[in-house]
Amino acid sequence: MNHRPPGSLPVSKAIVGFLSFKTAEGLADRTIDSYQRQLQKWLEYLGDKDVATITVAELTQYFSWLRNEYVPHSFGGGKDRLSPKTLRNFWITLSAFFTWACREFKIPNPMKEVPSPKFKNSPVEPFTQDEMQEMLKVCLYSREAKPGNRKSFVMRLPNGYRDQAIIMTLLDTGLRAMELCSLRIKHVDTKTGKVEIQHGRDGGAKGGKGRIVYLGKAARRALWRYLADREDGEEPTAIVFEARDSRPFNPNSLRQLIQSIAERAGVKKAHPHRFRHTFAITYLRSGGDVFTLQALLGHSSLDMVRRYAMIADLDVERAHRKASPADNWRL
């Protein structure tokens, strides 16, 4: 029988321990799934070695392979390489893995010597007011039909109120796609606009952190109108936004819905996360502060909020004149 040396820890066993540890920390399911997929890919490339024997050179070679040779599977049959951002995500996953292994088993951390892949942030483009109005407009009615033997006509769409409520909720709260898909009626107060984003598996909040966001009057009205037609519109455990057959949306089906609405409205580059960008930038331009915005978005750091502030082109001098403690206290 082939025995492993005493004290050795194969990568496969370490991965199981790492994922269990991160699950116990309360990370979202999609984060755990991402860790698992990327670590499994690394294991397939590396082989089931002893974790303590892995070198900087082996890790560097792995990232070179990911960058230059590995072609991910694509449903469309494409041959694209991994994007720089995806490479960075692989690096983050392995860094987290070795940070845990180093602390847990007192082994060296070779990832400290592996440079992080660099990538440029894609430009953040908020929706315009006209684009939002066009998307809301096409939610209710189909395109005009022009039959040859009678007058042209439009048809009312069966899910128009739902689609308007989704757009208004995304725009007014800055929710992530998974957070919107996970909302239940008990989490939303249509009178006050208070929306509770749950942590953990059920709520979809990234990093396992719950928070409170708010809907304005127009968004509350749109959500109330949609729920008024639902038989279970006051059932606390019912999902807020239903797709087909009373099933909840998932991020992919939500993306498809937004793209369909945008196509009919003539709006390009539409996806759920762009509503989050629009919320953040408009919030700052309307006088909101970066620290409250950080809390509303659920960001653990100010990095992304700073990007929004730069795009919003805030007048820092004017903001300081308004908020100066020494001046306001007349010291």
How would you explain this protein's 3D organization?
This protein is mostly helical. The chain has two domains: 103 residues, Tyrosine recombinase, N-terminal domain (DNA polymerase, domain 1, Orthogonal Bundle); 194 residues, Orthogonal Bundle (hpI Integrase, Chain A), CATH 1.10.443.10. Helix content is 53%, strand content 2%. The protein contains 15 helices and two strands. A two-stranded antiparallel sheet has the order 1-2. Helix 5 runs antiparallel to helix 6, helix 5 crosses helix 10 and helix 6 packs across helix 11. The longest helix has 22 residues. It starts with 10 loop residues before the first helix and ends with a helix. The N terminus is likely disordered.
